[in-house]
Predict the 3D structure of the following.
Amino acid sequence: SQQGEEDPQALSIQEGENATMNCSYKTSINNLQWYRQNSGRGLVHLILIRSNEREKHSGRLRVTLDTSKKSSSLLITASRAADTASYFCATEIQGAQKLVFGQGTRLTINP
Amino acid sequence: DGGITQSPKYLFRKEGQNVTLSCEQNLNHDAMYWYRQDPGQGLRLIYYSQIVNDFQKGDIAEGYSVSREKKESFPLTVTSAQKNPTAFYLCASSMGRLEGATNEKLFFGSGTQLSVL
């Protein structure tokens, strides 16, 4: 099964609302990262949170990490139509030299 | 501009044919990666390389081969042994892993869509 599993698989909200996506993982990690992918394009790094951090902000993005529950959430505030994309969490597993990606949340912002 | 260039954007493979996907970076990164993405799915790691002339298998290496003769280049060959090659292929790079270093982010190319004729 996947190291990172995201919830929900798809989310549709109105412009201006907040969007929350969740990621759960199974093993100990060095860090957890969130990426964004527009349809048919490559991924773009959004934010990295280390295992000893609990919360991080970047513009309209807020990421939390709960290592005791092995989960993370990504909050996008005041959503815009341009935020429509798929969002992936990726975990850097302790002792491994690679990132493991979740299956993503497809976010649609309706104008 | 610095970045990662993948080519071609679209590629078609005939049965029994090997095809090679190109990935070039001018970010001076040591580490490079190949991922496969199937529709509506996450990314699965095919191969990765931490340094020139060295590479390791990822989670789904069967039917694929790579080389890393230059720091800037990490081509992926999809061989005829890969029976289900239709997918979106993504190349990525990171600064590289010095001893004990972690917490690197990946920079991605724009991908190659491979389809079977």
